[in-house]
Amino acid sequence: MMRKIKLVALDLDGTLVNTEKKVPEGNYQVLKQCEKAGIQIESRKDNIRMNNTDYKEALFYTASIFNERLGTEFSEDNLVLRCFQTENHQEVFEQFCKQYFPDRLEDRYTEDGYFDFHASAFVGTGDGADGILLRTDIARHPAELKHILLHELAHIFCTRNEIDGDNFFERYCMDDTISREEDGTINAGYAVWRELIAELIAFELDDNCDVVPLRRKKDLLSYYEGELLTGNGKMGVSMILCEAMTSAEGEASMTWDAAKSKFTRLKPFDDPLYRDLLELVFTHVRKYFIVIDRDFIYEIGVLYLSIAAQAMIASLKNRFQEE
Hints:
It is built from 12 helices and 5 strands. Strands 3-5-4 form a 3-stranded mixed sheet, with helices on both faces. α4 packs across α6 and α6 packs across α8 (233-245).
């Protein structure tokens, strides 16, 4: 009987990182697959551990990258960090929210699985501080921590700038005046988009990320497709789109006409639904970057739900054939 792998311990120099102290693309892709599969990665160089001060320094170093590259103004005056571990996650969350983000106390944080994340971004109201809640009972290589923080800062950046003077989620995803079907479509579309755009920004700002051909991501794309049947389909589709747009083919193409033939000869983009979705977000990012509107998000939602339904039907057909 095969046992489920729960933890992988890695040496750093010459194993996880190369002689330039960077995580090669192949290793980076494996780390991402392990994370999605719930496998904990331990780095074993001098049993690396960080304290809260180290994490704070890492956050503001990462924030300085944002400030330099994207013109943000993250500082200790408007950005706060709280660290939590498995045994105190609910207590830390409640204290953090009571002090800075009282509206988040309405989240369903007492439900199982709520804290199954590495980090989570919190966006303040108006000119209020923004924040990041970071899980620290996992030993990480500094390069991995940097990327996680870049991703969460990207969430904050996008939320504050994606529509003029308002919060898209609060305006459209919390709208109780529309039908249940329309609400579900918009929420699905926004879930796909917000993870995609945050990871795209993190990739572009992270000098540890290498650009490789899409064909070398074949196994990773297949893994993410499988997420459609695990309840994590929105994240899976977001990552499929991200892997395409950050591939050598995506980075080298400024227009969809230039990129289309490069993508459509490879799975899953030989499928019209995936192809249409990639075209939609590829074109939008090139033209509008992070700025979005309701119709764009709704269209993403329609295509995502069609892809999810198609995957479920294919799975059921395969099951019936096996029986």
